[in-house]
Amino acid sequence: QVQLVESGGGLVQPGKSLRLSCAASDGILDRYNIAWFRQAPGKEREGVSCINSSNGGNSVYADSVKGRFTISVDKTKNTVYLQMTSLNPEDTAVYYCALDHFCTVVDGKVPHYGMDHWGKGTLVTVSS
């Protein structure tokens, strides 16, 4: 079974940092790309970042987070990370990881080349 489990969310003050984790079942990171998405209440889902964990580890970012967020993979732990710095209230959302066929940026956004495998999400709240 394909399993993705997000963790690491919580309450953080503006300007601070937080690292999210996406634990994947065995073999997944050797076969698929992993992407991070987020969705705030009343807003559309937004692609944040994507990494080619199965092929070289190249990564892409949406303009909204570029320079602040870093995606990485540790295959020994079957985990993809999203390190977030300089957080602001606009980053408040439920963050999800998902399988993806491709990692690209189109008009400053990371699209989802749909694979219906998602974790349950982890909530990040940026507030004073």
Topology:
Elements: E1 4-7, E2 10-12, E3 18-24, E4 33-39, E5 46-51, E6 59-61, E7 69-74, E8 79-84, E9 93-100, E10 114-118, E11 122-126
Parallel strand pairs: 2-11
Antiparallel strand pairs: 1-3, 3-8, 4-5, 4-9, 5-6, 7-8, 9-10, 9-11
The number of distinct β-strands equals: 11
Q: Determine Rg (CA atoms, Å).
A: 13 Å
Unreliable stretches: none
Kindly state the mean pLDDT as a whole number? Answer: 94
SSE order, as H and E?
A: EEEEEEEEEEE
Helix content: under 10%
| Largest pleated sheet | 7 strands, mixed
Shape: globular
Count of helical regions: 0
> In percent, how much strand structure appears in the residues?
over 45%
Helix/strand structural class: mainly beta
Q: End-to-end span in angstroms? A: 40 Å
Description:
Helices cover 0% and strands 47% of the residues. Strands 2, 4, 5, 6, 9, 10 and 11 form a seven-stranded mixed β-sheet that branches. The protein has strands at residues 4-7, 10-12, 18-24, 33-39, 46-51, 59-61, 69-74, 79-84, 93-100, 114-118, 122-126. The protein has no helices and eleven strands. The termini are far apart. It is mainly beta and 128 residues long.
